[in-house]
Specification:
14 strands, mainly beta, 4-stranded mixed beta sheet, 2 domains, 7-stranded mixed beta sheet, 3 helices, Ribosomal Protein L25, Chain P, RNA Polymerase Alpha Subunit, Chain A, domain 2
C-alpha cells in the first residue's frame, strides 16, 4: 500500500504562531510538524486541499518531499478548528517500513444485507474504524467487512472480521461494527384499546341476576 501512498510536497515554515498559520491556511496551505528518527522537528506546510482530501479518504501513510529528500511519514494526529469541522494542523512522523506501529484503519462495509430486505429495518454502523498493530509496510488502507449475510437482529463485532496477513487487532473484539435493527412496533391506537360501548369487564366470581350465592 505504501507504493501508492499520496505524495505531500512540503515547504518549510520560517515563522510560527497562530497568525502566520492562519495566513498559510488562507493561502491554501496546511501547517504541519514532522517528527521522528532522531531529527529535529521540521515545521512545514503542505497543500491543504489534497492533504485533507486524502485524510478524509482514510490515508494515513504519505511520501513527504522536502528539500530534495523523500521520507515515508505516518499521520499521527490532526487538530480541528473550534467548530470541529475543519482540519487546521497535522502531526506527521517519519517511519521505517519495517517499524511496528499502532494505527486506526477504516472499516468498509460491503454487500447487501439480507436483513435490509424487510420493511422498517435499518443498518446501524456504530464505528467506522478499528485499531491495529502491524509493520508499516503491512498497514492496509481499509478493511472490508461483508454484511451480506447479516439478518435482522444480528451484529458483526470487531473480533469476527478476518484481519489481513501481518495485522493484529487491538480494538475490543466485542465492539459492534454493524447491526441490523427492526422497526419499533407502533403503540396500539385508541380504537384498538377501547372496550366497545358501555361494557365493563366481567369480574370472576361476581354474582349475576338469578344466581344464588
Amino acid at each position: 500500500m505504501h507504493e501508492n501512498a499520496p505524495v505531500l510536497k512540503a515547504e518549510p515554515r520560517d515563522r510560527m504562531g497562530s497568525r502566520y498559520s492562519r495566513r498559510l491556511r488562507e493561502a491554501g496551505r496546511l501547517p504541519a510538524v514532522v517528527y521522528g528518527h532522531g531529527q529535529e522537528p521540521a515545521h512545514v506546510s503542505v497543500d491543504a486541499k489534497e492533504t485533507i482530501k486524502a485524510i478524509h479518504e482514510g490515508d494515513r501513510v504519505f511520501k513527504l518531499e522536502l528539500g530534495g529528500q523523500e521520507d515515508i511519514v505516518l499521520l499521527r494526529d490532526v487538530q480541528f478548528n473550534y467548530l470541529g469541522d475543519e482540519i487546521i494542523h497535522a502531526d506527521l512522523s517519519r517511519v521505517s517500513l519495517d517499524e511496528v506501529t499502532h494505527a486506526h484503519v477504516r472499516i468498509k462495509l460491503v454487500g447487501d444485507a439480507v436483513g435490509l430486505k424487510s420493511a422498517g429495518t435499518a443498518l446501524v454502523h456504530p464505528t467506522d474504524e478499528v485499531t491495529v498493530e502491524c509493520k508499516l509496510r503491512d498497514l492496509p488502507d481499509h478493511i472490508e467487512v461483508s454484511i451480506a449475510e447479516l439478518d435482522q437482529g444480528q451484529s458483526i463485532s470487531a473480533g469476527e472480521i478476518t484481519m489481513p496477513a501481518g495485522v493484529k487487532l487491538l480494538s475490543d473484539p466485542d465492539a459492534v461494527l454493524a447491526t441490523i435493527t427492526g422497526a419499533m412496533k407502533a403503540a396500539p391506537t385508541a380504537e384498538e384499546t377501547e372496550v366497545g360501548g358501555d361494557a365493563s369487564p366481567e369480574v370472576i366470581g361476581e354474582k349475576k341476576d338469578g344466581e344464588e350465592g
